Amino acid sequence: MIQLDGITKRYGDKRIVADISFSVEAGQFCALVGPSGSGKSTTLRMINRLVDPDSGRIRVGNDDVASLPIEGLRRRIGYVIQSVGLFPHWTVADNIATVPRLLNWPETRIAARIDELLDLVQLDIATTRGKYPHELSGGQQQRVGVARAIAADPEILLMDEPFGALDPITRQALRGELARIHKATAKTTLFVTHDIDEALQLADTIAILRDGVLVQFGTPLQILSRPANAFVRNFVGGAELGLKLLAQRRAADYLRHDVVGQGDPIAPNTPLTEALSQMVLRRTDRLPVGTAGESLAGSIVLADLVAR
C-alpha cells in the first residue's frame, strides 16, 4: 500500500503540490493525471525520495519513507521514466541485471530472471539478450525499461509518462502490454500521464491534479459518472463523456431476457462502445449476448444504454 497524507512541496514562493492525500491499495494501478505543471511528477518523485516533501507524510506498506535509508527504500520500488534511461554501453541482459547484481544475486538466478522477464515483456530471448539499446526500437526499449524496473521483484512500480515519446500506434500497443504485465505481477503501480484516455484504459483508480491540488480521486467509473466540477468534466471527456462512460461498462451489465437480439452474439465482457458500434454496423437496436457454443445469456437493447 502507498499512503500520502497532506503532502506539500514548494520551490521558493511557488507551490508545486498542496496538501495532497490519497491511498493506493496493494496491487492496485493508480494513474496521476492532469495538465502540465499540475504536480504529477513531483508527487511521484516524493514517493521514492528523489524529492522530499516540505510537509506531510508518505507511507509505503507500514513504513514512513522519511525514516528509511534511501537505498533500502529504492530497492523496494521500480522506476520507469519517459526517456527509459538504459545504459547505452550495456547489453539488454546487463541492463535488466542491474539491481539483482547490486543485491549480489547468484549469476544463475540472474540469468533465469532475465529470461523470465524478457518472456514477460514479450521480447525474443535469443535475439534480444545480447543487443544494445541503440539496436532496439523505442517500444522495445520501453519494454526493457519495465523489465529492469521489476527485475528484483519490488513491491511498487512508479512510471513517469513512460510512453510519452512514442508514436500513437506503439503507445497503444504498450498500454495493452502494461495492462497484461500488471495483471501477471500484481505490482502496486503509480503511473503519471497527461492522457486521460490512457488513465481510463489502465487504472483501477485515478487522481486528477490541477495546480498542485488533488481535484478528484476515484475509480474511472466514479469520475466519469460524477465529475467533481466543470474542470474535471471537461478534462475527462467533455462532449465525449457519454462514450467514455459506455467504455467503462460491459454488455453483461445491461442484460435483458424479454427480448431477442439479432445476429451473432457478442461476449458478455464486450465494452458497450463496441456493442454500440456493432448495432450501427448491423443496423439493429438489439444484440444477443453469450459465449460461442453455449446458450445465450440474454440481449442488450439500445434504449437501455441511453436511458441508464
Short recap of the structure:
By secondary structure, this protein is of the alpha/beta class.
What is the terminal-to-terminal distance?
Answer: 34 Å
Mean pLDDT: 90
The outline comes out as globular
Main β-sheet description: 6 strands, mixed
What oligomeric state do these chains adopt?
single chain
The number of helices is 14
The fraction of residues in strands falls at 15-25%
Strand order of the largest sheet: 6-7-8-3-9-10
Report the structural category: alpha/beta
- What are the segments in which pLDDT stays under 50 over at least 5 consecutive residues? none
CA-atom Rg in angstroms = 22 Å
Taken in chain order, the helices and strands follow as EEEHEEHEHHHHHEHEHEEHHHHEEH
Explain what the structure shows:
The protein is of the alpha/beta class. It contains 14 helices and twelve strands. It has helices at 40-47, 70-75, 92-96, 98-102, 107-120, 125-128, 138-149, 168-185, 196-202, 220-225, 230-236, 241-248, 272-282, 302-307; strands at residues 2-11, 14-24, 29-33, 55-60, 63-64, 77-81, 156-160, 188-193, 205-210, 213-218, 286-289, 298-301. The strands form three sheets. A six-stranded mixed sheet has the order 6-7-8-3-9-10, sandwiched between helices. Strands 2-1-4-5 form a four-stranded antiparallel sheet, covered by helices on one side. A hairpin with a 2-residue loop joins strand 4 and strand 5 (63-64). Helix 5 (107-120) packs across helix 7 (138-149). The longest helix has 18 residues, at 168-185. It is globular. It starts with a strand and ends with a helix. The mean pLDDT is 90.
